Amino acid sequence: MFRTRKGRRWRLFNATDFQSLMYPNFILSKILGIFPYKIKISIFEASKPHYILWTIVFCAVCVHQLTLLYKLNFSGRIKIDVPKTITLNFSFIYGLFITVATYISSGSRMRLLQTISDISSKLPQQYYQKISKLIHAKDIFGFFFVLCMGITYMKNSDMIFGIPLEMLRGYTTFLAFQMDMLYVNCVCVLKACFKEINNNLKNLLVMNNIPSLYHQQRYPFLLKKLKSLKKQYLVISDTVQMLNVIFSPQLLAIIILSLKKIIFHVYFYVVQWQGRLTFNLDNIYNTYFIMIILYNFIRITLIVWVCETGKNQAIKIRTTIHDVLNSTNDVQIKNELHLFSLQIFHCKNIFSAKGFAVDATLITTMASIVITYLLILIQFLIISHSCDEKNTIHYTQFN
């Protein structure tokens, strides 16, 4: 599947079906123990040994996250400031939540992968080859970037929870990364399916404009093709809704965690108090700070980009239908196109998370939230130190 004609090299960037397209993501997920499936001739089936491994991993991660939460909040051994406590609690709760959500949705995620594999089987090979470079590159290089980020964190961390627990914290980061990339891959394939429908409709427009003496033979063929495209569009729309339901908790958690990481890391690394409020720009060049900001920014941007372009590709179909409608004179085809247009109107092919659309407006909203909460944290920092100064002055006057 991945070999050249000589059979000497592996070619990941020449995907020809859904399984080969998702190959890096599936392999890395198997290494992490979060892929409880087996694939037989493009059929996804539950694997009992893999499910047992995934259950063991799930229990271990849950115990690990609960242990960290207990040590941070109830043991009394960890003495850190309030902002640091808040950001660590967010991270541990996120790790616990994403693990539980991933485990619970294992069955529905398998059905989603099977559905996308079925509907994408009709795609031409050039579609797979175009998107495979992006998908394979981001899956492989992204995994190694997260690995480098974890190594950098271990070098810069003060290990307040001990080396074993700190090392296990990185597992949830890899788990979340794999789920993010799986979501992006699925949206990319669905976008390609919408594009194929749009191209087929354009071909119908061309065929309809070609002069021909065999009108009685041509129009039944166009009508049959149009009904097939309408059914295909409905299946893809249902798959989009299934995708939204399965990945909505994960997307909400990603958005909240990315906001938290950007806000608190900028606050910790840039905003300082040295007798007065200062912005220590030298710390911006800390390696881990740069990596964590880049990771969260690219992560959100990639998700928003693929969802926005997927939505736009679905919208283009509506315009193409009206172009075909204006160019045909056959009554049956016009009726079919009207029904198709009405079907598109009722199918809201928007990639969302619990009602929140994942589109370009999300970036601007997140930017405004980051600025707002940074200002709030800075105000609390000024107030807390101003109270300290007043107490010092009062104590001096009393003596």
Descriptive notes:
- It is a single chain.
- By secondary structure, this protein is mainly alpha-helical.
- It is 77% helix and 5% strand.
- The protein contains 11 helices and 6 strands.
- The strands form 3 sheets. The protein has a two-stranded antiparallel sheet with strand order 1-2.
- Strand 3 and strand 4 form a beta hairpin.
- Helix 3 (48-73) packs antiparallel against helix 4 (82-104).
What descriptive keywords fit this protein?
399 residues, mainly alpha, two-stranded antiparallel ribbon, two-stranded antiparallel sheet, 11 helices, disordered N terminus, disordered C terminus
- Kindly provide the radius of gyration, computed on alpha-carbon positions and rounded to a whole number of angstroms: 26 Å
The arrangement of helices and strands along the chain is: HHEEHHHHHHEEHHEEH
Percent helix range:
over 70%
The main β sheet shows up as: 2 strands, antiparallel
